[in-house]
Design a protein that fits this description.
The structure is a single chain. The protein has 5 helices and 2 strands; from the N terminus they run H-H-E-E-H-H-H. By secondary structure, it is mostly helical. The protein folds into 2 domains: about 5-60, no CATH class; about 65-100, no CATH class. Strand 1 (about 35) and strand 2 (about 40) form a beta hairpin. It is elongated and about 55 Å long. The mean pLDDT is about 85.
């Protein structure tokens, strides 16, 4: 397989409408030697690998709340009391319990 350039990857991503960072894809694969899987077989098609990245991203659950939003503000918006040091995961579990 001919190793793609970042520009080729970016063009393919744009053509397909994927939400993947071309530089991240290139550097990750450059770091591991353009191999795939647990057996580290040489990559046959970077486009197929990129498609797999895209599908894996699609399958990831979307965050319930914006992780950049302040927990205290979110709790206030929901009529809850913020707890000092509470993680987003703990906050989400607490919100789930109060909604059921």
């Amino acid at each position: 397989m001919k190793k793609p350039t970042i520009e080729e990857i970016a063009a393919f991503i744009e053509e397909k409408g994927y939400e993947i960072d071309a530089e991240e894809f290139w550097h990750k694969n450059e770091a591991v030697g353009w191999v795939v899987g647990k057996t580290c077989k040489p990559m046959k098609s970077w486009k197929s690998t990129l498609f797999t990245w895209h599908k894996n991203i699609e399958r990831q659950p979307k965050p319930r709340y914006n992780p950049n939003q302040n927990i205290e503000q979110m709790a206030n918006d929901l009529g809850l009391q913020a707890r000092p040091g509470e993680s987003w995961d703990d906050f989400n579990r607490r919100v789930q319990r109060t909604r059921h």
